[in-house]
Records
---
Amino acid sequence: QSVLTQPPSASGTPGQRVTISCSGSSSNIGSNTVNWYQQLPGTAPKLLIHSNNQRPLGVPDRFSGSKSGTSASLAISGLQSEDEADYYCAAWDDSLIGPGFGGGTKLTVL
Amino acid sequence: EVQLVQSGTEVKKPGESLRISCKGSGYSFTNYWISWVRQMPGKGLEWMGRIDPSESQTNYSPSFQGHVTNSVDKSISTAYLQWSSLKASDTAIYYCARGYQYCTTTNCYYYFDYWGQGTLVTVSS
């Protein structure tokens, strides 16, 4: 059972906007910042969004993050076929004394 | 360029021991904690534990405490993940990741900014 809760799947057509939710608790999202990782098929995870809504250099501005209370979301606008991947949210968990991950959301571009 | 390069694929039998490695380059190795993350076949990411390369301080997820050991050789900028007795359920891809952490007066921020390429460990009789 994952520390954070994500929907197992999401889908959209090219050009659409999709959002992926991430739910936690007061010991993680409620008191710490949220990060998002993208894992393309057969590759290592890559940092996509950090500190709730900050994009590392090189990440397109089509990707955005937000947080409210004990939940967070990742939005992808102008969906492209290369966005098909698994997306994981993560946040430091004060009970775990380490980062907790969501179970991952598999995004399919139809 | 920051890089974390992991050791190669391993095939082991239950009960055997194993140590896999993660070599950092392109940055000051002792300035950032190294974490290990497990991904079982077809499953999600699980944080296992982390080590501070400067002092070898560790902390582990309760799910992995006592089953794995983190260590480091800072003279060669390399972190290790070790098992003394493997089980079939240890079959997975293991990633090392650099933890970036900073605190302001109001918040602390922690995320993995660089990842290794992963090491596939297969445990089978």
Note: Residues 48 and 60 of chain A are 9 Å apart (CA to CA).
---
Amino acid sequence: AQSVTQLDSQVPVFEEAPVELRCNYSSSVSVYLFWYVQYPNQGLQLLLKYLSGSTLVKGINGFEAEFNKSQTSFHLRKPSVHISDTAEYFCAVSVSGTASKLTFGTGTRLQVTL
Amino acid sequence: GAVVSQHPSRVICKSGTSVKIECRSLDFQATTMFWYRQFPKKSLMLMATSNEGSKATYEQGVEKDKFLINHASLTLSTLTVTSAHPEDSSFYICSALFPLAKNIQYFGAGTRLSVL
């Protein structure tokens, strides 16, 4: 079975500052990794994904993430955040090579202030 | 624009009644859809996997007789909460597997269910 750990439940940051949201996973098999964003009372929007290839993945809205197999991590970064980035961010994992279900972390609330 | 449509976005019902939530894939056929439940300030919990033309696969601890799932067409899956009780109040979200990228799930906007 797979599991995902997002240690930070909340991350406060000032606008235009850089941010990193941490994600670690556990799996005995190869996995695909995803970051989703959820705005209040809305569903989830895919930010970026790692399936294979380059370990640095770029997504929408200026976000990027780096897959580190040795550290089993997939941290999300943005060099300069906006107020509009305030949302809940979920890291998720699925077994690679299959159209399998997602296992989500508990989420990180990114709060951007002026 | 949205590739998965979920309806209704919000529903309030009396205890004991049944509520149906629809999840539609727009512009693509989805043989597999998923239903999640999200508690306040919590992560998403997978309830069941919905496969077109066959019975849904429920996760452990989810009552299949209470949460009826029907995937009668390639673009529509429905979740019916039967005999709803206040403890069923939650945010329900569906997703659909995009056929051209089978590891990618696209999510609906969610349904806020409040049972009085």
Note: The interface with chain A takes residues 4, 6, 9, 32, 34, 42-44, 46, 49, 91, 93, 95, 97, 102-110, 112 of chain B (CB under 8 Å).
---
Amino acid sequence: GIQVEQSPPDLILQEGANSTLRCNFSDSVNNLQWFHQNPWGQLINLFYIPSGTKQNGRLSATTVATERYSLLYISSSQTTDSGVYFCAVERQTSYDKVIFGPGTSLSVIP
Amino acid sequence: DSGVTQTPKHLITATGQRVTLRCSPRSGDLSVYWYQQSLDQGLQFLIQYYNGEERAKGNILERFSAQQFPDLHSELNLSSLELGDSALYFCASSTGDGGDTQYFGPGTRLTVL
């Protein structure tokens, strides 16, 4: 089945720093989303981005579907950005219709 | 607030028991997805319903079953519970039959003792 990898697995940032999170996938997909799971466990949708680039405030994302990767950029990080960031890919198959990556755990320290 | 509701928030039960988790999708959404999040397996897709019909089936155990009702709410039934079923169970909803944004509920934390 399709493999989804995320890097780095863990990241510690000083408040105000920038970072880039990466998601690689091993096969073609119909959809890709980025999520933030906050320390209380809530999964928050950040981007729906099967291809191209999107920006939302300090966050932006780029997906290059032909090369099977997506990047999430966090600029001027804040302590509230802490948590785990997941990418999830969606396919038209049944069994592995949605596959989540293992996540990047981000800690932003003041 | 995503607009997706899940009840209960927490559930503690014993091995061998049966429980039902409930999910109400966002207004207007026709798809409901169920996921399990555990420490060792990560986030895993279980099953998807669209407008009352099963559309995709992932890594869902035979002891687990789900359905989507005419009012579009969904229930996930877990039976013959084992210690390893302890996890966070999420539902998500989307407008169409896949290929669009999924919005997640707050989750139900199940503890099997």
Note: The CA atoms of residues 36 and 85 of chain A lie 5 Å apart.
